[in-house]
Amino acid sequence: MADALFDAVPATSKGTIRLVHLYPKEMSIYGDLGNTRCLQKRIEWHGYTAEVIRHAPGNPFPEAGHLFIGGGGQDSGQARVVADLERNADTLRSLAAAGTPMLMICGMYQLFGNAFVTVEGKALPGLGILDVTTQGGAKRMIGPVVLDTVVGKVVGYENHSGATTLAAGQEPFGRVVRGYGNNGEDGTEGARTGNVIGSYLHGPILPANPALADLLIGLAAARATGRPFEPETIADAVADEARNRQVRRLLGSAG
Ligand code: GLN
């Protein structure tokens, strides 16, 4: 039987989008690999070609990437990638300053900040692309999350001991409706500077929140082709229903 979704994709590609997954081996837990798969599929469903580059520590840095993503990891995983991040810090900072879209989850979000100080007091230097600082603590912040963001309600799952503080003037990614967010105290979640987004939300976040995936793809498509994003209509009813149910369940109304 013909698949309506695939029928919607034109025979010719609208352009190639290079998607870079930073450190998939060291930094990709709680399903964060699903973000890469989601982006790859949605890029194709929108009629573009997806080229996925999995960047490992020590490899030549894929600076021609159009969209960069990174996931969560153990403190030990973070320690294994900091040297490579430091080596490529100037490149990543220039890409971020030039408007390259990036989504960094949990452990990679912490490393895109100024520093992550582990619970043992070891300071891992960050890139300083997001003006945030993270302090590891004894208490883990675990559970489902609902946020208010620029793309509407976003749902996900958090599991971190690091408590993140935004510097004055640093925009959060979202406001916590349910969950802990950056630190369980100030109601902020994640951070956003230009087109760089950091967030604690696993889930993975993108399949559950297609509007966020398409925000990133739209920015990447414009950078890749020099033309405005030309989206296709994608059937997101299942993702939308799953997200709405999580919102209703957590906010306590019938559903
Ligand atoms: N080390 C971090 C923390 O626990 C990262 C956790 C994660 O990426 N899931 O705060």
Concise summary:
With 255 residues, this protein is an alpha/beta fold.
What does this structure look like?
The chain is an alpha/beta fold and 255 residues long. It has one domain: Rossmann fold (3-Layer(aba) Sandwich), CATH 3.40.50.880. It has helices spanning 4-7, 33-45, 75-87, 89-97, 107-112, 205-208, 210-225, 237-251; strands at residues 16-22, 49-55, 67-70, 102-105, 115-117, 123-125, 132-135, 141-149, 152-160, 163-166, 174-178, 188-189, 191-193, 196-199. It is globular.
How are the strands of the biggest sheet laid out side by side?
A: 2-1-3-4-14-13
Secondary-structure class: alpha/beta
| Mean pLDDT reading | 94
Largest sheet: 6 strands, mixed
Q: Uncertain regions: pLDDT < 50 for 5+ in a row?
A: none
* Count of DSSP-assigned helices: 8
Q: What's the N-to-C terminus distance?
A: 33 Å
Order of helices and strands: HEHEEHHEHEEEEEEEEEEHHH
Topology-level CATH name? Rossmann fold
- CATH architecture, please? 3-Layer(aba) Sandwich
| CATH class identity | Alpha Beta
Beta strand count = 14
What percent strand? 25-35%
Q: How many domain regions?
A: 1
Shape designation? globular
What do we call the CATH homologous superfamily? Class I glutamine amidotransferase (GATase) domain
Bound molecules: glutamine
- Helix fraction bin: 25-40%
What is the topological layout?
Elements: H1 4-7, E1 16-22, H2 33-45, E2 49-55, E3 67-70, H3 75-87, H4 89-97, E4 102-105, H5 107-112, E5 115-117, E6 123-125, E7 132-135, E8 141-149, E9 152-160, E10 163-166, E11 174-178, E12 188-189, E13 191-193, E14 196-199, H6 205-208, H7 210-225, H8 237-251
Parallel strand pairs: 1-2, 1-3, 3-4, 4-14, 5-7
Antiparallel strand pairs: 5-6, 7-10, 8-9, 8-11, 11-12, 13-14
